[in-house]
Amino acid sequence: MKKILLVGVILGLSSLTLAQDAKQGSKEEIKAADRVQAAATVLDEVMAAPDKAIPEEILKSAECVAVVPSLLKGGFVVGGAYGRGVASCRVEKGKDRVWSAPAFFTVGGGSFGFQIGGQAVDLVLLIMNKDGMKNLLSSQFKIGADASAAAGPVGRHAEGGTDWKMRAEVLTYSRTRGLFAGVTLKGDVIKQDKDTTRDFYGRMVPFKTSLTGLVDAPAASKPFLDSLEKASKQAADR
Questions:
Q1: How many CB atoms lie within 10 A of CB 235?
Q2: What is the distance between the alpha carbons of residues 192 and 136, in angstroms, rounded to a whole number?
Q3: pLDDT tens digits, residue range 144-165?
Q4: Which helix (H) or strand (E) holds 126?
Q5: What is the per-residue pLDDT for 66?
Q6: Upper half-sphere CA count for residue 21 (Cβ side, 13 Å)
Q7: Contact of 126 with 65, CB cutoff 8 Å
Q8: Secondary structure class of 192 (helix, strand, coil)
Q9: DSSP string covering 196-222, please?
Q10: How far apart, in whole angstroms, are the C-alpha atoms of residue 221 and residue 67?
């Protein structure tokens, strides 16, 4: 029994070391522009999936959209997750509402349970109201503590009986092995990715500056902002 526990502890520590290595590697290798393109691809593919997209009513109501391509999850006994994402919020521009310049963030957390192996999932978060947006603009918040979150419904239309519009500040979705569904996140911390922000803008740009329209979106933002505009326009036209 002691040997089994020892092996479990060793493997658990090894998984944490590998997670840290992956974390460091992604930080050095994945450029901001690549992340913008990857987020655009995830959003395009999710919204193109027949009857498995984010419901139109929900997308039309969202204040902000955040995408984490390839969130890394894994562990043995001790589990953890780490990912790097990009977000944009709706802002007023004259008579129109447009998508803001992107903000770069990390999301990470840990859990304890009987789990083995690892996987990479795409994560999509929708900030649904002003309270959720306020938490996002703070540049760091904890899902389930600072901001209430719920698994988002899936399909072309949201069911009338759901309470997503009344309660949830953040609706969360995940995609793995081609399957897209709502997912419950609790305890994961979202905070600004300062290194990538500096690389992308050439200086430090706080969430409150980029996500409220106080800075122009660089040309490299185009893939993600175009995907958001396309998805939101399709939802509005239906």
A1: 20
A2: 9
A3: 666 677 778 887 665 544 555 5
A4: strand 118-127
A5: 94
A6: 7
A7: yes
A8: strand
A9: HHHHHHSS---HHHHTTTSSPPPGGGH
A10: 14
Q: How much is the pTM?
A: 0.77
pLDDT of residue 108: 78
Return the pLDDT at 26.
39
At 65 the pLDDT is: 96
Q: pLDDT tens digit string along 16-49?
A: 333 444 444 334 335 899 999 999 999 998 888 8
Provide the pairing of β-strand 149-151 with 170-176. Answer: parallel
Distance CA 38, CA 113 (A): 31
**Domain-wise residue ranges, the chain:** 2-237
d(CA 43, CA 204): 26
Q: Which residues of the chain have pLDDT under 50?
A: 1-29, 74-79, 111-117, 160-161
CB count in 10 Å sphere of residue 219 = 7
Helix (H, G, I), strand (E, B) or coil at 103: strand
d(CA 192, CA 179): 28
**Taking a C-beta distance cutoff of 8 angstroms, is the pair 190, 87 a contact?**
no
| Residue pointed to by tokens 């503590």 | 145
With b for 16 or more beta-carbon neighbours within 10 A and e for fewer, the 59-77 pattern comes to bebbbbbbbbbbbbbbbbb
d(CA 58, CA 127): 10
